[in-house]
Amino acid sequence: MTWALIFGMATITYVNRYLFFARSISYRPGARVQRLLSYSSYAVLTAIWAPIVFEVNSSYDVSLAGLDYALATSLAAILSYLRINSLIVVLASTAVFFIIRFF
Questions:
Q1: 86, 41 contact by CB (below 8 A)
Q2: Angle CA(92)–CA(93)–CA(97) in degrees, nearest 5?
C-alpha cells in the first residue's frame, strides 16, 4: 500500500509538471487557477515554518524556548503580509534566526 501511494504521488507530480512545461500540449490554466497558484509560495512558506515553530521540545531552556523561531517567523509573516518578494522574506527571516541563535 505504501509503495502504491508513493508511485501515485510521483505520477501526479510528474503529470502536473508535464502539463505546464510540455510544448506539445497547449494547456493554459484559467484565470481562477492562476489566481489560486499565486498564493502557493505563501502556502509553502507557512507549511515549512508552522511545524517548526509550534513544536514542543523539552530540551530547550524554558525561558528562551523558541524565541529564535518565534521572532524569525514573526518577521517572515509580516514581510509576507506586506507582499515583499519571497526571496527577501526567506533571506531576512533566516538572517534574523541565525543572528539570534548563534550570537
A1: yes
A2: 120
Give mean pLDDT in consecutive 10-residue pieces for the chain, a chain of 103 residues.
Answer: 93 86 78 88 81 63 65 89 92 92 83
Q: How far apart are CA 39 and CA 83, in angstroms?
A: 11
> What are the phi and psi torsion angles at 22 (to 5°)?
-75, 135
Q: Where are the domains of the chain?
A: 1-37, 39-103
Q: Collect all residues with Cβ–Cβ distance below 8 Å to 71 and sequence separation of at least 6.
A: 96, 97, 100
Contact indicator for 79, 88 with CB cutoff of 8 Å: yes
Return the closest-CA partner of residue 71 out of 47, 95, 39: 95
Q: Which three cell numbers stand for residue 23?
A: 510544448
By C-alpha distance, which of 37, 38, 30 is closest to 83?
Answer: 38
- Cell 548563534, located at residue: 102
